[in-house]
Amino acid sequence: MVTAADSTLPELDAGELVRWRADGGRLVDLLTAAQRLGPVAGFRIGDRQVVLVTGPEEVQHVLARHPDTYVKHGHRAKVLLGDGLLCAAGEPWRRQRKLLQPQFTVRGIRAYEPQLRAAVAAVADRWRAAADTGEVRELDADLRYFSLDVIWRSLTARPLDEPTYRQLVAAGDSLAAIPAFAPATGESDADFSRAVADADRAAEHAIALARQADEPTLIGVLLRAARELPDYDETLVRDELLTLMVAGYETTATTLGWLFLLLDAHPEQRDLALSAGPAGSAERAAAIRALIDETLRLYPVAWLMPRYAAETGAVGGHLVPAGATVLLCPYLTHRDPEVWPTPETFRPQRFLAAERRPAPGSYFPFGLGPRACIGAQFAVREMTLLLEEVLPAFRPEIREQPTEAGYRLTVHPDGPVRAVLHRAENRL
Ligand code: HEM
């Protein structure tokens, strides 16, 4: 499908690539240099043509309007997650998405609200105990436990236990080590055999728990499909439940981690959010939502989405040849001064109703189009419930934090975040 392609793709030349490698070879720097060439720009690594798409209109074109031309292709997580939603393609993907979609609408996730609230209460209890003793907590580990606990409870109707937590984190860590896109050839595939064994054990345990549950569970939905649908079997139940856990926990935990770091640097934003309205009010909920939206603007954890051009096409008037790797990078679109005024400033107010909503394609932390995140409402709900509970109750005093962001499968704080939790004196 070729539509009016009238100009040559602006490309970084070989000299720029040599300089980039000499300067440390960080992918984010290469992409930043390419973005300076325009909303659609390219470079070549060996015989591989890479096209970076950062302009809002062009992002829409690729993700929302032509998902059958720019397709997801050979995700390396498949070794661990099999044919679950994240890695599936074509008709099987469509069937699986249709099965799960109703569970993840605003209405659908209400069935799991008690589980979300129980996980929030568990964190608040832990933090209250820590505040009383002055213990230094690893905030990132607490947030990781929380977001895995939320999904585990929604899958099984039971709280997460420590041994399973350790198995899942070990499996998740192997995935997190995968680069979002590997331009430097020679990077060997991670050895996933331990991770697969850990993940299998956790999946078996989850299925056994869900079979005993009386409450609604996500695994219950999958098991019913395995009983009733001809193309659904128990291997797919395993793949799907692991996909939901892995796709859902690191992303949410990392977003919350960035949010606490941003609030540490901008404490007035915590107070502004809490003074927007009393506990439980729509005004406070909107202000907390704006904190989440602005965090995801600056740190869209799924910062890079690769696609494969299944046929030759045109993006923003530039020819994109079949076989090219097309990269969408919300991290760069969200920080483009042409798209967002003062993009480096943390200003949640830009998401509040009085100001302009972002134009389509200019904000896509959850992706866009048919392959957009199925768990977006779920993630926003769990983060909102946690923040509504802990922001008024605690003031984390951060004692240690990384100075750099790491850019692998996610953009994440590159090291532990340690904090002492003080009880907030004037609980708002
Ligand atoms: C802040 C939290 C989250 C962020 C930023 C996020 C981001 C994303 C993005 C950008 C995609 C699309 C990737 C692409 O187009 O290449 C995606 C897909 C997906 N996400 Fe999320 N996600 C989050 C939380 C969750 C949660 C909580 C779940 C499940 C409970 C989840 C499950 C999935 C699944 C299954 C897919 C694949 C959907 C498909 O291909 O049909 N995510 N996510």
Automatic annotation (TrEMBL):
GO terms for molecular function: heme binding; iron ion binding; monooxygenase activity; oxidoreductase activity, acting on paired donors, with incorporation or reduction of molecular oxygen. Keywords: Heme, Iron, Metal-binding, Monooxygenase, Oxidoreductase. Coiled coil: none annotated. The keyword Oxidoreductase applies. SUPFAM superfamilies: Cytochrome P450. The keyword Iron applies. It holds the Pfam family p450. Its cofactor is heme. Heme binds at C373. InterPro entries: Cyt_P450 (IPR001128), Cyt_P450_CS (IPR017972), Cyt_P450_E_grp-I (IPR002401), Cyt_P450_sf (IPR036396), Cytochrome_P450_monoxygenase (IPR050121). Belongs to the cytochrome P450 family. This is Cytochrome P450. It comes from Kitasatospora griseola (Streptomyces griseolosporeus). The lineage of its organism: Bacteria, Bacillati, Actinomycetota, Actinomycetes, Kitasatosporales.
